[in-house]
Design brief:
Blueprint lengths: L2 H7 L4 H4 L18 H9 L14 H14 L3 E5 L2 H12 L5 E5 L4 H13 L3 E5 L15 E7 L11 H10 L3 E5 L4 H4 L9 E5 L13 E5 L4 H10 L6 H11 L2 H20 L4 E5 L9 H7 L6 E6 L4 H8 L6 E2 L9 E5 L17 E5 L5 H18 L1
InterPro entries: Cys/Met-Metab_PyrdxlP-dep_enz, Cys_b_lyase_bac, Cys_met_metab_PP, PyrdxlP-dep_Trfase, PyrdxlP-dep_Trfase_major, PyrdxlP-dep_Trfase_small
Protein name: Cystathionine beta-lyase
Cofactor: pyridoxal 5'-phosphate
Amino acid sequence: MKKATQLIHAGRGKEWTGSAVNPPVVRASTIVFDTMAELKHATVHRGDRVPYYGRRGTATHFALQDAICDLEGSAGCALYPCGAAAINAALLSFLKQGDHLLMVDTVYEPTRAICDKLLAGLGIETTYYNPLIGAGISALVKTNTKVIFLESPGSLTMELQDIPAISTVAKAHNIVLMLDNTWGTPLLLDAYGLGVDVCIQSATKYIVGHSDAMLGIATANEQHWPQLREHSYLMGYCASADDAYLASRGLRTLKVRLAQHEANALKVARWLQQRPEVETVRHPALPESPGHDIFQRDFSGSNGLFSFVLKQGDAKAVAAFIEGMAHFKMGFSWGGYESLIIPNLSIQKLRTASSWSYSGPLIRLHIGLEDTEDLIADLAAAFERFHQAL
């Protein structure tokens, strides 16, 4: 089955939907049983999408989990209340006191906070590494290294990692390889085909797709799924049936939305490349962007998220650029139908193991589903305000 067809049919088995097109929203805490045999069966199979207790899931959750597993080719899927929870649960499922973690230096800022504040307090050591290290990561492996964590492209600056090369090193040392694949989604990057063991996504972003629900997803291969599943349950993680339903509904249009996000973003990115104020545009699908060769090899497409760096500009000028937009809204997250904009005045402050080549402010855009002529006009007006404030 092609991905577009999978998106329509995945997770819509009759055991979850009955005779309806979509799975119903089943909200439950207690699951009741008529016989001891039913109770025993549910207890024995409580990790296998059999109703047991609300925290284990209902038909609404099981439908989404089935769909994600079908799309990714994973052995199992756990749901969490947000993407950060999925990252935290994945790390804590495979790390304990005395262990060592290799974390990419360009990682999502809340993930860095988990490492520096939570994991450090538990006696887990983190070493940050250059995202472009590739097979050279072998030099950083210690006898107690248990997890290598990837995020490709990296948050804000969009560096791409050589996942197959790092996977080879991880397997040689029996290290769990994790990937935050929120940017790639199951449609744009085949995580398990590239050698990943645990794949994490903030379903809040493109899977839900409408900026109205928070949800995290972590999946694993056959070897690592039982441990991820049980540790996540023991930590008390679960997600609401309503949010799981919204994610299932979002999946149905994921391919067409991503295609439009991609087309719109490329138009805006190419326009930005022509602006004299712009030092560089960080969009992996552009031939001029670093890592484009890896993008062509590993990804089947792009989406609406990218960034660009200005040649100059202080806080006042950047504020003039950002404030007063007609269509871009200033806010965190991304992946919804709306366009977003967020500034960062100093990338180097977010890194400890790799250098950043540019001194100008970075601006990250999420290009939504608006008409690109309106978005470009909005940015053109922002540049006018920017010049007036310099």
